[in-house]
Design brief:
The protein has a single domain (26-175), classed as dinb family like domain (Four Helix Bundle (Hemerythrin (Met), subunit A), Up-down Bundle). It has a two-stranded antiparallel sheet with strand order 1-2. The protein has 8 helices and 2 strands; from the N terminus they run αααααααββα. 60% of the residues lie in helices and 5% in strands. Residues 32-165 form the DinB-like domain.
């Protein structure tokens, strides 16, 4: 898979931080593969009680974070599929907080959530591995902003890296104190 980075204008400025979290010269698919094991190890090590503990009032629990990763990945890959297939319909955004609030993630076991996350990741990898260079450079509009399929490929591991950073910086100290 080519590691050509998306250019400015290939994604909304909001996503710049996510794209920047994929180091220059790194293959985003390789990043997704390695992050799969990291997410499984990080979240799989939690007890059910820890998995229900937010680091502060009003923040998500680790279970909600994990399901958010799967939900967001599905949304981003759906966009990628539509745009790769030259579908020019503008796609709506999604409210990640509303999704988390209505997901019932906290009622599910961590092993069930990890299985869903892992299945989602396998589907993501299969989808992106099948795209051609032409398809990666196709663009569409989602949440009111233009984005290329290539940019979505970089946003995915960057988004997950962001949440892993937050987990290690904010959740881990609370969960392991």
């Amino acid at each position: 898979m080519p590691t050509t980075r998306p250019e400015a204008g290939d994604f909304a400025p909001f996503y710049e931080n996510y794209v920047a979290l994929v180091p220059v010269g790194h293959d985003p698919l390789t990043a997704l593969r390695s992050q799969t094991a990291e997410v499984q190890a990080t979240f799989g090590a939690l007890t059910e009680a820890q998995a229900l503990t937010a680091y502060a009032p009003g923040k998500w629990t680790p279970k909600q974070v994990l399901l958010h990763l799967a939900d967001a990945e599905r949304v981003f890959t759906y966009r990628a599929l539509r745009f790769a297939r030259a579908d020019n319909q503008e796609l709506a955004g999604f409210d990640e907080n509303a999704y988390a609030d209505t997901s019932d993630a906290n009622a599910r076991s961590m092993s069930d959530l990890l299985a869903e996350y892992t299945a989602t990741r396998a589907a993501t990898l299969a989808l992106f591995e099948g795209f051609t260079e032409v398809q990666l450079d196709r663009r569409g509009t989602a949440n009111g902003a233009a984005v290329t399929v290539r940019a979505l490929l970089f946003i995915l591991p960057g988004h997950e890296r962001h949440h892993l950073h937050v987990f290690h910086e904010r959740y881990a100290p609370v969960l392991h104190s």
